[in-house]
Specification:
The complex is a heterodimer of chains A (about 500) and B (about 375). Chain A is of the alpha+beta class. Chain A has 19 helices and ten strands. In chain A, helix 6 runs parallel beside helix 11 and helix 16 packs antiparallel against helix 18. The mean pLDDT of chain A is about 95. The chains are: A alpha+beta (about 500), B alpha+beta (about 375).
Chain lengths: ~500, ~375
């Protein structure tokens, strides 16, 4: 009926089979144990919601309304106590080694009860993911061990990503824009390290974190080719916290300004700079974009999961209200129009979830998680005792060749098509899920009327919290353009993106 | 809102625009901190002195009789800068209209003329609720020939500020009917909660009220509450739409101004065609809103047959557009728009808040079609 070459030919026609569906080819390659692992992570999150998040969410939000300078150390310490800041740190570095895709299910659960608290946990892994995406094994080991020590000695050690600048938000996430933009945070090469000057804004968890993954630029005229990723510890001379933003929502999760004045960062805390990438296949500029794509392909799925949580929180509030409220003499849930609204909201939750699940399947076979999710690797790390891993593997991460090898396999080993597929799906997930999140909040408030407006009912907070999801990790407009760049433009050579 | 060639409406337009720009805009973020910051009594008193609270009231009841168009112009201009004051003005006017619809014109005339103190003058009212939709209303009964109320009522707007409150309560054995009662907020037997923390309109606070044999004055005739409510709601949907329209205009102006000065990728964001498309969508919503609201107000003031359906349709459309537009209003400013230092996040909250006025949004739509097919 059809030859093998014809199958290949037709499957590669637009839309390409490999771009259309990631879960189908990924399914057989996914370790079966991940199902139980995911179920367990979800259960842990639900227990935490019941014991910690739900009893405190509205009180924390109200406290921040009253005192915008409040910092939720109490919650961070509780999350640290529960082990959440090491849960997705690999076992070879002393962490609990849960698979990264399980985090999305976790933050959906926490986000369904409180997005600010979900961020207080989840955003830590934005910092960790950035560190991991530099593939600097020595520094990954060092910082991860700090995080693990922070858990053991009850002193939370969180990591941020510090990339957004006062004059550059969208620009810093896209290499085609950053050279035309107005970045000002400079990392100047000096003897023995770099000196940073400038500031970063809207840094989630800034005031609460110990380490900051700072993205700065050696040459402000050519930032795309001179990007430097540095690990800066709170307390480093020349580094201070500026203002803490007063936000509409997600009030419990601080957004901080980080200020650098002649802040010296020694060479041994430089995660990645152009000199380190000289032996890699792609030009430095492309590797810098690839590093960003590695991060956002994972974290935009995470934002999709936050948004799924928001959509679910709104749906659950609406269905609860409809189940217990009589309107004009009839239980609201028994109005046909209300049932259709609730069904629509349920659909929005389900589609949001599917978008982050599919994105993580893409990451599992083409992106960030592809090595660690290969069955032999997965089971090796799962089954081996921590002591054995410490003895056999951990010491190797200190060697320079480990970083070289990882960068070779991760940067050079990922094809352009694979970068586009993971980045494109992540953008799709990000703007689809966050738009659904907002949609469900609107619907819930329409269904609940006056009751939905009250802080003590919790629903209005979900709308305030969810709006931020359409903005951070690249605005939804940038993500639409990125989807076009990654999944549409390659099929249309005449298309140019970001050069209107 | 288009004032047209009417000279008096033009003057009202100018006065309310100037008032909003000078009195409301500079302190918008500070005023929004209520109840965790001070209440803007001075601004409220000035609005009272400028007779904004008398705009729609007929002259024979002590008002200045500018009708629906006048009220909508004032509300739109005020809400462009700060919808909280608009909420206060709306609530008081709605309470007066309810009393008129229930047959309490004389009482309205007394209140309109009796106090220079704005707090004593104001009438609180549960304007977010359609009492027919509520399962448990308070109950009124005659004791020694005087009405007293027992029970509770959620979310009475201005309840903690106003000297009077207009309350729906059931009487006798007829559970289907209710009546409107005026109470003195400071009377024995009236208990008020702290201001209810809410999504928007922070400086237009609501409280929950509890009544224990609270003395009350029946407004109009017993059992006519529902018809009075729907009479009031038919008219007052237009001011709600005007408030939403004002918020849209404020959000658009802020977004346009910001897009001229913010650069990304080496270009003003105004020069990104996707941003222009978003701004164009905002303009479409505002221009069409202006036109349909002006037409609906004219219909209402001229008592054109079917004006009620026009008003209801205009309100549903403009309120929904305001929710969408203010979402984009934040989006164009990005992270900046999400912060409290700018007006965009407040406009987003206020637009959604207003959508809940006069009852559940879906029920208001159903009422529109029910009235048409009746």
């Amino acid at each position: 009926m059809i030859s093998r070459s014809e199958v290949k030919h037709f499957a590669n026609q637009s839309p390409r089979f490999d771009d259309m569906i990631c879960s189908l080819p990924a399914g057989p390659k996914t370790p079966g144990l991940m199902v139980g692992e995911t179920r367990k992570v979800m259960a842990i999150a639900r227990k935490f919601n019941e014991e910690v998040v739900r009893p405190y969410a509205l009180e924390l939000d109200r406290t921040l309304h009253e005192n915008p300078d409040f910092l939720p150390w109490d919650f961070v310490e509780k999350a640290n106590e529960w082990g959440f800041y090491t849960m997705w740190i690999p076992k070879i570095f002393g962490g609990k080694g849960y698979s990264m895709p399980t985090m999305c299910y976790f933050v959906e659960e926490i986000g369904s009860a409180c997005l600010a608290m979900a961020n207080l946990i989840g955003v830590h892994y934005l910092g960790v993911s950035t560190l991991n995406a530099t593939w600097n094994m020595r520094l990954i080991s060092r910082l991860c061990r700090d995080i693990v020590a922070g858990e053991k000695n009850h002193t939370p050690c969180l990591v941020t990503l510090a990339i957004t600048e006062p004059g550059a938000g969208t620009d810093v996430e896209e290499i085609d824009l950053v050279d035309k933009g107005s970045v000002t945070c400079q990392a100047q090469k000096v003897d023995g390290g770099y000196k940073i000057n400038g500031s970063k804004i809207f840094i989630s968890n800034g005031h609460l974190s110990t380490w900051h993954m700072v993205i700065a630029y050696a040459d402000l005229d050519k930032p795309s080719e001179s990007t430097v990723a540095l690990a800066v510890k709170t307390g480093t001379p020349g580094f201070s916290f500026g203002r803490k933003e007063n936000k509409m929502g997600q009030k419990g999760c601080p957004a901080s300004e980080l200020v650098f004045k002649d802040c010296f960062v020694p060479d041994d805390l430089v995660c990645m700079d152009p000199a380190q990438l000289a032996k890699n296949k792609r030009p430095v500029r492309e590797i810098n974009m690839q590093m960003i794509d590695y991060v956002v392909s994972a974290t935009r799925a995470g934002v999709g999961a936050f948004a799924t949580g928001a959509a679910r929180g709104a749906y659950e509030a609406a269905v609860k209200f409809a189940s217990e409220t009589h309107v004009a003499g009839k239980l609201l849930i028994n109005y046909e129009w209300a049932q259709c609204m609730l069904a629509e909201m349920y659909k929005n939750v389900a589609l949001s979830r599917l978008s982050y699940v599919e994105t993580n399947y893409a990451n599992g076979i083409y992106g960030f998680f592809r090595e660690i999710q290969k069955k032999p690797m997965y089971y090796y790390y799962k089954m081996m005792p921590v002591k054995w891993l410490e003895k056999m593997v951990s010491s190797m991460t200190e060697k320079a060749w480990a970083t070289t090898w990882f960068r070779k396999t991760q940067f050079d080993g990922q094809t352009d098509e694979e970068i586009c597929r993971t980045s494109g799906w992540a953008s799709l997930c990000k703007f689809a899920a966050t738009d659904y999140g907002i949609k469900n909040c609107h619907m819930a408030l329409e269904l609940m009327g006056q009751a939905g407006l009250r802080h003590d009912r919790g629903t209005e907070k979900i709308l305030r919290d969810a709006k931020l999801l359409q903005i951070y990790e690249g605005t939804n407009q940038l993500n639409r353009l990125n989807l076009f760049k990654c999944l549409v433009a390659p099929e249309h050579p005449q298309a140019v993106v970001f050069e209107e | 809102m288009i004032a047209g060639k009417d000279k008096e409406l033009k003057l009202l337009d100018k006065a309310s625009t100037e008032f909003a720009g000078k009195q409301l805009a500079p302190e918008r973020e500070a005023n929004d901190k209520y109840p965790f910051g001070p209440f803007f009594d001075t601004v409220l008193q000035k609005a009272h002195e400028l007779e904004f609270f008398h705009v729609m009231l007929p002259e024979d009841l002590g008002g200045i009789g500018h009708g629906m168009a006048g009220l909508c112009i004032v509300l739109s201009n005020i809400c462009r800068e700060d919808a909280s004051l608009g909420g206060i003005l709306f609530t008081h006017t709605a309470a007066c209209e309810l009393m008129i619809a229930a047959g309490g014109q004389d009482r309205v005339r007394t209140i309109a003329s009796e106090s220079d103190d704005i707090r004593k003058f104001l009438i609180a009212c549960p304007v977010f609720n359609n009492p027919s939709e509520i399962a448990h209303l308070a109950r009124a009964e005659l004791k020694d020939g005087k009405w007293v109320i027992n029970g509770s009522l959620e979310y009475v707007v201005l309840g903690g500020l106003a000297g009077h409150a207009l309350i729906p309560a059931k009487t006798g054995n007829n559970d289907a009917a209710y009546s409107w009662f005026l109470i003195d907020s400071a009377a024995d037997g009236v208990a008020l909660s702290e201001p209810v923390m809410s999504l928007g309109l922070h400086a237009c606070p609501a409280v929950d009220m509890t009544f224990h044999d609270a003395p009350a004055e029946l407004v109009g005739s017993e059992g006519t509450g529902e018809s009075a409510f729907f009479g009031m709601a038919a008219q007052m949907q237009l001011p709600v739409a005007a408030m939403s329209l004002g918020i849209m205009k404020g959000s658009f102006k802020e977004a346009l101004d910001y897009s001229k000065g913010r650069f990304q990728g080496g270009r003003r964001i105004l020069d990104w065609s996707e941003i222009r498309m978003m701004l164009a969508d905002m303009v479409v919503k505002i221009k069409t809103g202006d036109m349909i609201l002006s037409a609906a107000c004219r219909n209402a003031d001229e008592n054109t047959p079917g004006w009620q359906a026009n008003a209801a349709a205009a309100a549903v459309r403009i309120q929904a557009d305001a929710c969408d537009l203010t979402t984009d209003g934040i989006q164009i400013l990005g992270g900046i728009g999400y912060m409290k230092d700018y007006g965009q996040e407040k406009r987003f909250r206020d637009a959604k808040h207003l959508q809940a006025l006069l009852g559940l949004a879906p029920m208001k739509k159903l009422k529109l079609i029910e009235d048409m097919i009746r």
